[in-house]
C-alpha cells in the first residue's frame, strides 16, 4: 500500500450483463463460494453423512426385526428394501437445516451488506446457497446409496427409472432448501435457525410412509400421512426403484400417482418459497 | 462542479430512535466529505441509506447522477463501500474474496482474478493472499474489506471509519491511497472518529449529531467558527483542578474542558501570549503547581467538543452541559 503502486490502479469498468444470464452467473459465483466454504469446514459434510448412515443401521438392525411390512415376505431383507427409500427421502430433507443455518449466518455476519451493495441479481445469494446445498445433498446420497447396497438393498427396475428416482429425491431436497432459506431469513441467528430448521422435520418425516406402513397408523392419522408431500416422494421412489412390497395394495390417490404428486409438490414448494424468500431478502434490514 | 452525492431531508427511524432526522448533504464531484459525529449520531445510517442498504422513511438521495431509491442496482455498479464492520467471507482466502466481489460487479473472471492480485499487493496482503480470511488479524481484515471497495475503481466511494483498527503505518498508507484516488477523480464520503484524519483528507466536513447535520464547512472554517486560541495547562496535583479552573475563569472566553485523569484543563482565550503570562502569574499567586502549559490553535477536537458537547474520544469530560451545547449547535448549523 504505497503511493508508487497506487498509480498502477487501472480503470476497471463493471461489465454490462442483464437479465437471466446475469442471474445465472451471479448464482453460480455464490454457489461456488458456498461449495468452497463446504470444503473448508468438512465437519459439516461429515456429520451430514453420519446421521443418515446411523439411521439406516439403527432401523435395519435395531428396529427392523420388530416391524413387519404387510404384503412383504418373511424375508429378513424385506424391511430393508422398504426402509431405504424412506431414509433417502428423509436425508434430502435435512438440506433445510444447512440452508437455514447458512443463510442466517450470512445475514448476521455482515457479509450480506457486501452482497447487497453489489450490482448483482436479486435472488442470487439465495439461489447460490440452495445450489451448493444440492451439491452437498448429492454427495450424501451417493455415499448413502453405497452403504445401502452393502447391507443388501437392491433396485429391481430399469436404469432410467432408478435415475428418475434419484432425481425426484434431489428435487425434493432442493425444494426443502428453499424452505430452509425462508427460515434462515426469518430467524436471523444461526443457532436458532438450525433448531427451527429441524423441529418440524421429525413429525413431517415420521407421520409418513417412510419408516412404517401407513396402514398400521390410527385411522384419523392415515389421511395426513397419505397426503404428506413427503410420503408421495417416498412412494414414488419405492416405485421407481422397485422396492414396493409385492403384496402391498395402495388405494390412496396420492400413492397411486406418487411420481407426479411428488414432482408437483416439489415444484410448488420451490415456486412458493423462492418467491417468499427473495422478497424477504430484499426487504431485510430496512 | 456537479454534486456526486446529494441527500435531501433523509429521515430514518428504528422504533423510537430517530437515527436520521432530516440529513442534507452535498458532495461535489472529486472531493472528500468527512462525516464527523459522536457515537450513535447517525453516520453509519447515512452511509447505509446512500449505499442502498437501507430505505429511508423520507427524503431523497442521488449518487453519481442516479436516484438511490429509484434505481438502486444502477447505483450499486457505481459505488464502492467499506462498511464499519469488515464484510468478508472468513472461510474464503483473501484472493477468493476479492475475485468473488469482482465477479459480482459483473467483471469477467480473468479480469477479476488479475484485479484481486493487484489489490492484494497494493494493500500489503500478498503474503496472506491464499490463507482463509479467518486467519487474518483485525487490521488485515479491514484492509481486505477496503480492497473490496476498490475492486471496480468506482467513481463514488463510501468508507465508514476506514482506519479504525489500523496501525499508524497502515493508516498513513491508506491516507496515501485515498489521496491518490481523489487525485484521479474519485468522490469520497468518509466517516471517522479521528479528527486528524478528517483534517488531512476532507475538503469539507459535516458534523452530525442526533441525526442532523449541525455544522458544515472546511476544517479551517469550522475552527474559525469556534474562535481563537486555547490555553492548555496540566495541573500537578489532581485535587487542585477545581481551584485552577477558578483561577482561569476570568480569562476564559468559553467553557473550560477538563480531563481528570491527565489533569489537563483547556480554556478558550483571546489575547495570545499576554494572556499566557497572566495565567502563569495567576496560578503562581495561588500556589498551584503546573507540569505543563501552552497556547495552541483550536483543533478539530475542539470543534467537535464545542459543537456536540461530547468528546470525540472516550475518557474526555467536558464541563459544558449537553443542553447548552445543543442550543448553540442549532444556531451554528443554520449559519453553516
Ligand atoms: N438496525 C437498527 N436497529 C435499531 N436501531 C438502530 C439500527 N441501526 C442504527 N440504530 C440506531 O440509530 C442511531 C444511529 O446509529 P448509527 O449506527 O448511524 O450511528 P453512528 O453515527 O454510525 O455511530 P458510531 O460512531 O458508534 O458508529 C443509534 O441510536 C443506533 O442505536
Ligand atoms: Mg457507525
Explain briefly what this protein structure is.
The complex is a heterodimer of chains A (286) and B (336). With 286 residues, chain A is an all-alpha fold.
Polypeptide structure, described:
The complex is a heterodimer of chains A (286) and B (336). By secondary structure, chain A is mostly helical. Chain A has one domain. In chain A, 71% of the residues lie in helices and 0% in strands. Chain A has 14 helices and no strands. Chain A has helices spanning 3-6, 19-40, 42-63, 78-93, 95-108, 111-116, 124-150, 159-187, 190-198, 201-206, 222-227, 229-241, 253-256, 258-283. In chain A, helix 7 (124-150) crosses helix 8 (159-187) and helix 8 runs antiparallel to helix 12 (229-241). Chain A is elongated and about 60 Å long. Chain B is α/β, with parallel strands linked by helices. Chain B folds into 2 domains: 3-78 and 154-224 and 307-332, Rossmann fold, CATH 3.40.50; 228-296, Alpha-Beta Plaits (2-Layer Sandwich). Chain B is 37% helix and 26% strand. Chain B is built from 12 helices and 15 strands. Chain B has helices at residues 43-50, 72-76, 94-104, 109-122, 138-149, 168-183, 195-201, 219-225, 241-248, 273-285, 300-308, 322-335; strands at residues 3-14, 17-28, 32-36, 58-63, 66-67, 79-82, 156-160, 187-191, 204-209, 212-217, 230-235, 257-259, 264-268, 290-296, 317-318. Chain B has a 6-stranded mixed beta sheet, with helices on both faces. In chain B, strands 14-11-13-12-15 form a 5-stranded antiparallel beta sheet, with helices on one face. A 4-stranded antiparallel beta sheet of chain B has the order 2-1-4-5. In chain B, helix 3 (94-104) crosses helix 4. Chain B is elongated, with a radius of gyration of 23 Å. Mean pLDDT of chain B is 85; it is low at 311-336. Chains A and B meet through helix 1, helix 2 and helix 6 of A and helix 2, helix 3, helix 4 and helix 6 of B. The complex binds adenosine-5'-triphosphate and magnesium ion. Magnesium ion (MG) binds at residues 43-44, 84, 160 of chain B.
Amino acid at each position: 500500500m504505497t503511493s508508487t503502486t497506487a498509480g498502477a490502479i487501472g480503470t476497471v469498468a463493471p461489465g454490462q450483463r442483464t437479465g437471466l444470464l446475469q442471474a445465472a452467473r451471479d448464482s453460480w459465483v455464490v454457489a461456488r463460494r458456498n461449495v468452497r466454504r463446504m470444503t473448508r469446514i468438512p465437519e459439516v459434510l461429515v456429520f451430514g453423512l453420519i446421521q443418515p448412515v446411523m439411521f439406516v443401521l439403527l432401523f435395519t438392525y435395531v428396529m427392523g426385526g420388530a416391524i413387519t411390512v404387510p404384503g412383504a415376505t418373511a424375508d429378513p431383507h424385506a424391511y430393508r428394501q422398504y426402509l431405504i427409500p424412506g431414509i433417502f427421502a428423509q436425508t434430502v430433507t435435512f438440506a433445510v437445516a444447512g440452508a437455514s443455518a447458512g443463510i442466517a449466518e450470512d445475514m448476521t455476519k455482515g457479509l450480506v451488506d457486501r452482497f447487497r451493495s453489489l450490482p448483482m441479481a436479486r435472488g442470487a445469494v439465495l439461489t447460490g446457497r440452495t445450489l451448493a446445498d444440492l451439491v452437498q445433498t448429492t454427495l450424501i446420497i451417493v455415499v448413502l446409496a453405497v452403504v445401502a447396497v452393502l447391507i443388501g438393498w437392491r433396485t429391481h427396475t430399469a436404469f432410467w427409472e432408478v435415475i428418475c428416482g434419484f432425481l425426484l429425491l434431489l428435487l425434493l431436497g432442493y425444494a426443502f432448501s428453499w424452505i430452509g432459506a425462508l427460515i434462515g431469513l426469518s430467524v436471523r441467528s444461526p443457532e436458532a435457525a438450525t433448531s427451527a430448521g429441524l423441529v418440524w422435520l421429525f413429525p413431517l418425516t415420521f407421520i409418513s410412509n417412510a419408516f412404517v406402513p401407513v396402514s398400521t397408523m390410527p385411522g384419523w392419522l392415515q389421511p395426513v400421512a397419505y397426503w404428506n408431500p413427503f410420503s408421495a416422494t417416498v412412494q414414488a421412489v419405492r416405485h421407481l426403484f422397485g422396492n414396493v412390497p409385492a403384496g402391498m395394495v395402495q388405494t390412496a390417490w396420492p400413492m397411486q400417482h406418487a411420481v407426479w404428486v411428488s414432482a408437483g409438490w416439489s415444484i410448488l414448494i420451490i415456486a412458493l418459497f423462492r418467491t417468499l424468500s427473495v422478497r424477504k431478502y430484499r426487504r431485510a434490514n430496512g | 462542479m456537479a454534486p456526486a452525492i446529494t441527500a435531501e431531508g433523509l429521515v430514518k427511524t428504528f422504533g423510537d430512535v430517530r437515527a436520521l432526522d432530516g440529513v442534507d448533504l452535498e458532495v461535489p464531484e472529486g472531493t472528500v466529505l468527512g462525516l464527523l459525529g459522536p457515537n450513535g449520531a447517525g453516520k453509519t445510517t447515512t452511509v447505509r441509506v446512500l449505499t442502498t442498504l437501507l430505505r429511508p422513511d423520507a427524503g431523497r438521495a442521488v449518487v453519481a447522477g442516479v436516484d438511490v431509491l429509484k434505481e438502486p442496482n444502477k447505483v450499486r455498479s457505481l459505488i464502492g463501500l467499506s462498511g464499519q464492520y469488515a464484510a468478508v467471507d472468513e472461510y474464503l482466502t483473501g484472493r477468493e474474496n476479492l475475485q468473488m466481489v469482482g465477479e459480482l460487479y459483473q467483471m469477467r473472471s480473468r479480469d477479476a482474478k488479475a484485479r484481486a492480485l493487484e489489490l492484494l499487493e497494493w494493500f500489503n496482503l500478498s503474503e496472506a493472499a491464499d490463507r482463509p480470511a479467518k486467519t487474518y488479524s483485525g487490521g488485515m481484515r479491514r484492509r481486505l474489506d477496503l480492497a473490496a471497495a476498490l475492486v471496480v475503481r468506482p467513481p463514488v466511494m463510501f468508507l465508514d471509519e476506514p482506519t479504525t483498527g489500523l496501525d499508524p503505518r497502515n493508516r498513513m498508507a491508506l491516507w496515501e491511497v485515498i489521496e491518490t484516488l481523489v487525485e484521479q477523480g474519485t468522490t469520497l464520503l468518509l466517516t471517522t472518529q479521528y479528527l486528524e484524519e478528517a483534517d488531512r483528507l476532507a475538503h469539507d466536513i459535516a458534523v452530525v449529531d442526533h441525526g442532523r447535520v449541525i455544522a458544515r464547512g472546511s476544517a479551517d472554517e469550522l475552527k474559525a467558527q469556534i474562535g481563537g486560541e486555547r490555553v492548555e495547562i496540566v495541573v500537578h496535583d489532581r485535587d487542585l483542578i477545581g481551584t485552577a479552573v477558578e483561577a482561569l475563569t476570568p480569562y476564559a472566553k468559553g467553557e473550560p474542558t477538563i480531563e481528570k485523569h491527565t489533569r489537563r484543563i483547556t480554556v478558550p482565550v483571546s489575547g495570545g501570549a499576554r494572556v499566557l503570562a497572566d495565567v502563569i502569574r495567576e496560578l503562581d499567586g495561588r500556589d498551584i503547581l503546573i507540569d505543563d502549559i501552552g497556547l495552541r490553535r483550536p483543533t478539530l477536537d475542539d470543534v467537535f467538543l464545542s459543537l456536540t458537547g461530547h468528546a470525540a474520544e472516550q475518557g474526555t469530560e467536558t464541563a459544558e452541559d449537553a443542553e447548552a451545547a445543543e442550543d448553540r449547535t442549532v444556531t451554528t448549523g443554520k449559519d453553516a
